[in-house]
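Appendix B, record 7
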Amino acid sequence: MTDLRTLVVTPDGEIEEKWFPAPTEDFLDALHATINCDTAEVVRLGPDGRRASMWVDMDARLPMVNDYVTAFVFAFNGTVHQPYYGTAVFLGCPTTSGRETGLSDEAEIFVRHLMFRVKQGDLTVRNFREENF
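Structure tokens (predicted):
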């Protein structure tokens, strides 16, 4: 099994490429350590949920809204139903058997482009806070 390429996005807008071990117990340990949580939930991204996966802290221990990833969910899915908190880890879409995959080049470019647009002020995340979640 090969390592999985991910992008880690923090609430302050830092973005970092990171490699995780293939989906095993080590994968979950690396995921929980990166997000700083005990339990993580996955958000499937794309119209059919097959473009990418975003993992976040299920318990929202870090009480800092991550407007960047909230905006990314909207950009991928066309809707967002809640704000997301803390650090997020982006991976590829799962296989048909449900195993996680590394982030595709296309999804990585999309996430980095969104981050650039948000930081340049071309894309605002302020609107997401005004929604009734």
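Remarks on this record: The beta strands are 4-9, 15-20, 40-45, 52-57, 88-91. Confidence is low (pLDDT under 50) at residues 129-133.
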